[in-house]
Amino acid sequence: VTTQRPGSGAGLVTLVLLGLTGCAVLNPPPPHTNQPTPVQTPSPSPIKPPADKPTPVPAAPAQTVPEPSPVKPVAPVPVQAFVLKPPLNALVEQANAQSRAGQLEAAAATLDRAVRIDPKNALLWIELARLRLLEADPVQAQALARKAMALSRQDPKAQKDAKDVLDAALKYTPP
Amino acid sequence: MNLITLVRHPWLRRALILLATIIGVATLGVMLSVAYFDHIVMDEFKQRLWSVPAKVYAAPIELYAEAPVGIEDLALELKRLHYRVGNPADGPGYYRRRGTSIELYARSVQFLDGARAATRVLIEADAEHVTSVRSADGSKLPIFRLDPMLVGSVFPAHGEDRIVLRPDEVPPLLASVLKAIEDRRFDDHHGIDFKSILRAMWVNLRAHRIVQGGSTLTQQLVKNYFLTEKQTFGRKWQEAIMAICLESHYSKEEILVAYINEIALGQDGERAIHGFGLGAEFYFGKSVSELEPHEIALLVAVVRGPSFYDPFRHPDRAKARRDLVLNELLAQGLLSAPEVERAKAQPLGVRSHGGGYVPAFLDLVRRHLKRDYQDTDLATEGLQVFTTLDPRAQQSAESALLKNLQRLDSTRHSKVGLQGAVVVADPQSGDVLAVVGGRDLGRDGFNRALDARRPIGSLAKPAVYLAALASGKYHAASLVEDAPIDVTLDNGDVWSPKNFTREQFGTVTLAHALAESMNMATVRVGMDVGLSSIADTFEKLGVTPRPQLVPSMILGTVELAPIDVLSVYSTLANGGFRVKLHTVQGLLNQDGKLLKRFKVELTPVLAPEQVYALDRLLILVTQRGTGAALQTRFRKLILAGKTGTSSDTRDSWFAGFSGSHVIVSWVGYDDNRVTGLTGAMGALPIWADTLSGIRTQSFAPTAVEGVEDRWIEFSSGQLTTPQCSPDAVRVALPADATVPVKDTCPQAASGNPNE
Predict the structure, then answer these.
(1) Looking at residue B164, what is its pLDDT?
(2) What is the pLDDT of residue B30?
(3) Which residues of B touch A66 (CB under 8 A)?
(4) Taking chain A, what is the end-to-end CA distance rounded to the nearest angstrom?
(5) Cα–Cα–Cα angle for B449, B453, B455, rounded to 5 degrees
(6) Residues with Cβ < 8 Å from A36, sequence gap 6 or more?
(7) Cβ B650 vs Cβ B635: under 8 Å
(8) Are B387 and B337 in contact (CB under 8 A)?
(9) Is B182 in the active site?
(10) pLDDT above 90: residue B565
């Protein structure tokens, strides 16, 4: 978003305020139970205000402003890696074993169980997309890989894995 | 004159020949009729013996650490699955609860993806979640599935529903009580019992009316096959012949088990309750193996006249006959005096009517299966159908609908009751979790959830705003005019839409226009982006046929059934991926072999950044707009949704989603009269009550490339922060959008609101 600044000469003030408020104006959003565990949070790099400037008046201290409670921030925290908790890990391992044994239907049923438990976990959609490729269904493999990509914007590793399955699905030729 | 000379007499000889002919013909006739009846009854018996209707199961509950199943949920679930409190060491089917832990001996069970042997597990749970699952030796189990709950048979032939019992599933007491009451000499006779016929004739003669029947169980079975109440001599003759034929071909056990599976035990709307397996479920919510003596006595009492002794409608009559049966059991020595006293002290114990049977959901299952299976296959082949039904969501939706319709009716002066429908799905997998097709729960009838196609009113607005966002001309902070507008129609008429409240808001943000469901602003936006791009959006959302390009489409003249709306809003809840809604996970044949599995199917249909931006606006509806009651009620949950009211309040809608559930509710009259209810007044409370009975998660859409989350002032659309403006709202703006910053809040010019 580029901003259109009303009035003139506000640039420097904005910059100063930005520095003052940039790091701690808002409380971080409450963690969502369904969100992946953050592994690494990039530290914000505030722009330091010039030392010779006095503290600007408009920077109202947080406690004087009534808490605008109705709006609940919901954006996820940047860079999050998906993990498979034990129940999901057990199901994925079971599906892989079934798939290796050539029981693709059973493997798919097992992965469906996992997806029903944690539908926002990109890793499960990646597994499901891979399995659809084994089942010679590149159209669904693509759709599922795209779903995994949409879910994994904050997880570069999952993003890459999803992209790899998508590429494979796009290049798929029937055996 | 001796006999010979007599026979020589011509007229006498002729008479004798005639007599012999008559006897011959009559004998032949009897033989032919016996052969004919034998053929008919054997055909029928074989068909019934081997015809097993498909069994339908709900989705099983998954137990694992952190699973959203509290200890009370678990206890209730085990009860529903007919597990008994006892010592789990006694065998499968028993469980013991100690505070927050449950020791369970789970029965062997068939799942879609394989069988599980009987297993002992120890489950611990707090009020909200499972905390641990271990096997009997104390080792951790990562995940464990409870048994899938049997919810009915999918395709009752001739409206008859039954749960077929195998011979080894028939409780011995049931068999002996049946014989004691209905046919004491069953084990000895050959189909008909002359002694009891004579006794009945004697009793009836003395009473000058028919008070006693002399029919054996076999005769009753035959009568039940050909369902007719007519007591003609011909009918009796046929019945007797058929009974003797059956007995000559089949063993006593086979006939008794057929009787137990066949006999009519009641009526539930269109559905006839047949057999003791279903009878036990229908009247007591139990499996037949768990029936207690007083319950067996009641079922056997009902056999004599399912409508006359209907325990729901005539409880006193039913109880009197039950106690009569119990007395007879004492007289015949089947139960001891203390047992009979205890049994007679029990109330009838029938459960509330209708509960557990989900005809509206089964209706959808049937329609989904119709593409692949013949009706007769489903009615006779003993298939096992594993569905996506979530009994908890179903129950929550049912009670939410009933409770609210009763409340709303009490404030209305209409002789006719309001009707309604609720549908619930998991937007990610496309699993349909619950379907309520009207307030007559448990009755097959008009399924409003699937068949009531009604104008969707403002539920259409998200499609208009999606088209607006996709056009690149609008974003959440764009300013639009909510002022009167005249649209000239093709026929020359002028259409001048007004707001529902007759107010006009003037210059507003797009976010505000959608949140308050402003008609004039929306029509302006819609006419600007063009009807065909709105129709395109509807099509992408799965609306068929493509809506006609008329301006009133913008305000929702499109007619959809609740299940169609569910599909549309699933796509909105799912980042623009359209999921195929399904009710069936798969089918097994009678031997447990997989016949078919229905997979999760997705199609990307809308740009993720536009859906994300729209979802942010739909969150504002529940926080600041027409759905703000949800904010007050569910403080900790983030929800997105939209109210809908069709012209003159004929239809009241709410459609919306949490992170794990998408729900659509509708309220209206069957004859389409005015309700006086907006979406917020009628459908929204039902939606909210449905959600409150489900363990759900906040809606937390995944951020996507191309849009950024920013705070804007709800009224002016200027960038701000919550510290600067009390009415700051969070929206998603295109990365390249140009938006003014609030004068007094220059710090708002900077990036992500999380920092």
Answers:
(1) 84
(2) 84
(3) 726
(4) 47
(5) 120
(6) A80, A81, A82, A83, A121, A154, A155
(7) no
(8) no
(9) yes
(10) yes
Whole-angstrom distance, CA of residue B268 vs CA of residue A130? 48
Higher pLDDT, B200 or B457: B457
Q: Is A13 within 8 Å of B746 (Cβ atoms)?
A: yes
Beta-carbon separation of B746 and A71 below 8 A: no
The whole-model pTM stands at 0.81
B118-137 pLDDT, tens digit per residue, is 999 999 999 999 999 999 88
Q: Please answer yes or no on whether B700 and A105 come within 8 Å at the CB atom.
A: no
**What are the backbone dihedrals phi and psi of residue B664, each rounded to the nearest 5 degrees, phi first?**
-130, 130
Q: Which of B196, B215, B458, B716 is catalytic?
A: B458
Annotated catalytic residue B715: no
Query: Is residue B734 classed as helix, strand or coil in its secondary structure?
Result: strand
Chain B contact present for A35, CB below 8 A: yes
pLDDT of residue B713: 95
Confidence tier at A2 by pLDDT (50, 70, 90): low
Looking at the complex, does the CB of residue A34 fall below 8 Å from at least one CB of chain B?
Answer: yes
Question: For the stretch B448-469, what's the b/e string if a residue is b when 16 or more beta carbons lie within 10 angstroms of its beta carbon?
Answer: bbbebebbbbbbbbbbbbbbbb
Query: Most confidently modeled of B284-288, B366-370, B526-530?
Result: B526-530
The partner residue sitting opposite B741, judged by closest CB among A5, A34, A35, is: A5
Q: Whole-number mean pLDDT of chain B?
A: 90
Mean pLDDT confidence for B726-753: 86
Q: Do A66 and B726 touch (CB under 8 A)?
A: yes
- Interfacial A residues in 42-71 facing B (CB < 8 Å): 44, 58-60, 62, 65-68, 70-71
More confident residue, A33 or B545: B545
CA distance B495 to B497: 6
Best CA proximity match to B275, nearest among B264, B287, B291, B266:
B264
In chain B, which residues have their Cβ closer than 8 Å to the Cβ of A143?
577, 601-604
The answer on pLDDT for A69 being more than 80 is no
From the list A34, A27, A3, A19, the residue with the least C-alpha distance to A122 is: A34
Determine whether the interchain pair B749/A140 forms a contact, defined as Cβ–Cβ distance below 8 Å. no
How far apart are alpha carbons B604 and A157 in whole angstroms? Answer: 22
Question: What is the structure's pLDDT at A18?
Answer: 39
Residue B225 and residue B255 in contact, taking contact as beta carbons nearer than 8 Å: no
Q: What does the pLDDT read at residue B355?
A: 52
Which of B114, B602, B638 is the closest to A143 by Cβ?
B602
Poorest-pLDDT segment among A62-71, B143-152, B444-453: A62-71
Chain CA centroid to CA B748, Å: 51
Q: A96: burial class by Cβ within 10 Å (0-12, 13-18, 19+)? A: middle
Cα nearest neighbour of B388 on chain A: A116
Residue type, B23: I
Cα Rg of chain B (Å, integer): 33
Note the maximum CA span of chain B. Answer: 141
Residues A25 and A131: their CA atoms lie apart, in Å, by 46
> Sorting pLDDT into bands at 50, 70 and 90, what band is A71?
very low
Inspect the interface and report whether the beta carbons of A18 and B586 lie closer than 8 Å: no
Residues of chain B above pLDDT 90, percent: 62
Asked if the peptide bond before residue A42 counts as cis, ω within 30 degrees of 0, the response is no
B733: nearest CA partner in chain A: A1
The verdict on a CB contact (< 8 Å) between B722 and A68 is yes
